[in-house]
Each structure stands twice: as C-alpha cells, then as structure tokens.
Write a structure and sequence with these properties.
Layout: E1 2-4, H1 14-29, E2 35-37, H2 45-48, H3 53-69, H4 75-82, H5 89-111, E3 117-120, H6 129-134, H7 136-155, E4 159-164, E5 174-179, H8 184-198
Parallel strand pairs: 1-2, 1-3
Antiparallel strand pairs: 3-5, 4-5
Helix pairs in contact: 3-4
Amino acid sequence: IGVLTNYVTDDVDPAIAESLDTALKHLDAAGAIVNEVRFAPFEQFAQINRIGLSSMEAYAWHRELIAQHRGEYDARVLARILKGEAATAADYIDLIAARAAVMEQAQATLWSRFDAVIAPTVPIAPPAVAPLAADADFFARVNALVLRNPSAFNFLDACALSLPIHHPGDAPVGLMLAAAPYADDALLAIGRGVEAVLAPLR
C-alpha cells in the first residue's frame, strides 16, 4: 500500500492526520507493506486543470438548457458550470492530452508499484452549514478543499472507496483507498481486508 505524502495531505486537520496515522500503524502491525510515495504531478493540477474538465464538459451539455432555464439552476452549481463557458476546443484538447500524460505517470509511479494508495478522503472535518450559506467566497474555498482529493483520483480515472476510521461519537473521518483504472474488483477485496483490520478502531 502506498501512502501519499503530497497534495492530498495539504491543509489536513490535525485530528484527521492523527486518525490516519493510527490506521496506518494498525495496517503495518497486521502485516501490510506500507510505504510512503510522492506523486509530483498532483502539484501541477492547479495549472493543468485550471478551467476544469468537469466544467468544460458540463457546460457543453448544459449550455442550451442554461439559455432556456437559467433561473432554475442553483446559483452555486451554475457558477461552476459556467467556468467552462470560456474554454476553447484547443483548451479541451490540450487538457485531454495533459490528462493522458498524468495518467501514464500514475501508472509508472503508483499503479505499477502498489495494489492501492491511501489518502484522506477529505482533509477537513465537516464544517458548520451556516457560515457556508452566509459567505459565497468561504463556501467556494471550503467546497474546493472538500472536493480536492476525490477529484484528483477522478482526474486519474482511478477507482476508489472510503472507509470510516473515526472513533464513535467523533466527527467523520474517511480513509480513501484508490487503485488503477478498472481495478474495482481487486480494490473492493483489498477494502474488505483493510476494513477488517481497522474494525477495532471503531
């Protein structure tokens, strides 16, 4: 199992980092081979995916509906879709090529070396709703942080699952296991084993 040490661990809450560390120690004690790994392309995501693949594709699909029913869209969802409005065909082609290159690097650095890699599912504890509803900028920052780690593996076309590792009564903490594209069956089997090892923590 590879334990990612960059990008997905940025700005992680101390309580989440502690839960993750405890889980990793249990896996190591149970005989799992656990090694740290750094995946440098993650640090280029802000530039590579600056417009957003999902925004580009969502705008292409929704543009006629937006023209007819703009007022029926949730304002925050609409804002994310409209990020793709300014994208050109060249932008999209460049992004698809860049994504393919990053996926090749993932194959060499991650999937050829590890059966699965581990990351915090979400780096922060669930936030209070009221501040998010009251401040659009704050919502955007928190929303981006919450979506960051799952989005990174979506970009790699990886499969992934999340296992709860928090103590009863504590705020939820998820341990994400990710694996190569189309390795769903193997990942689910690994997930069942990891879940059994970590069951005493809960």
